[in-house]
Write a structure and sequence with these properties.
Layout (H helix, E strand, L loop, with lengths): L2 H19 L15 H28 L4 H16 L2 E2 L5 E2 L4 H8 L1 H18 L8 H25 L4 H27 L6 H38 L1 H6 L11
Antiparallel strand pairs: 1-2
């Protein structure tokens, strides 16, 4: 064999090992019936406090300003549309953006937990995307963990006086990546590797989804910045009413 042929064979072998080690799980949305019942219940229970706080947060937001319902609905619609656009992954599964960074920046991570679970329920019922039995796990990764990191990154960037658009990009991009990292850990906990346990399994899942998820995260960051620019241009009064400008005084 020539060097190129040997390299090709090794590459094929590596892909084969990855396929054998990482079962299809619908990437970001863990599909119906994939997780054992105990894990489904456990993740659902973990989500309950976040959802309770999220309901209170949305209620208070609407009490302060009823007109903010337009931006809230837009944030939820954005999550629904963008997370429904599935891109084929190298595993025969799929990857997709989350869209939760936008709402986390505008309304905080608590509100996004409620909007996220609503989106996930509709996607599971109408699009067979995700599942009802895995709703708790999908809610935690996409509607809780991702928005929490997005919000934290955005606030941290603003605290250090970073360019606001750069802060938005990083928040949306890293929030997306963190969601897929959490999903990988969830899958690894349910299906630990025979050699290496949960840690080894998590690394395998991360490696499988990374080729498509990393560029998608970058695209989501750019798209979120573009939407925020549009809102700043055409919905400035609404952004002021929800307090967005307090955390975004400068774009320079």
């Amino acid at each position: 064999m020539t060097k190129k042929q040997k390299l090709f064979v090794r590459a094929v072998l590596a892909f084969s090992i990855v396929f054998a080690a990482a079962p299809v799980a619908n990437a970001m949305h863990i599909m119906e019936g994939y997780l054992p019942a105990a894990y489904c219940i456990a993740w659902g229970v973990v989500c309950l406090p976040f959802l309770a706080v999220g309901l209170i947060s949305l209620k208070n937001q609407l009490k302060r300003n009823r007109s903010s319902i337009t931006l809230i609905a837009m944030s939820g619609a954005f999550v629904f549309v963008i997370s429904s656009l599935k891109i084929p992954s190298v595993t025969g599964s799929c990857s997709h953006m989350t869209g939760t960074g936008l709402g986390a920046i505008l309304f905080g991570p608590a509100a996004m937990s409620v909007l996220g679970v609503i989106v996930l329920i509709f996607q599971a019922i109408l699009l067979a995307h995700g599942g009802l039995t895995t709703l708790g796990a999908n809610t935690f990764s996409m509607a809780i963990a991702g928005p929490l990191l997005s919000f934290g990154i955005y606030k941290l960037c603003r605290k250090f006086k970073c360019n606001n658009r750069a802060a938005i990009f990083l928040a949306a991009c890293l929030g997306d990546l963190f969601t897929y990292c959490v999903t990988s850990v969830q899958l690894a906990l349910a299906y630990p590797s025979e050699s290496g346990g949960t840690a080894a399994s998590a690394v395998k899942f991360l490696g499988v989804f990374a080729p498509t998820q990393v560029p998608l995260a970058v695209i989501e960051g750019i798209l979120t910045v573009m939407i925020m620019i549009a809102l700043e241009s055409y919905a400035k009064p609404e952004l002021k009413m929800i307090g967005y400008w307090k955390g975004a005084k400068s774009h320079e």
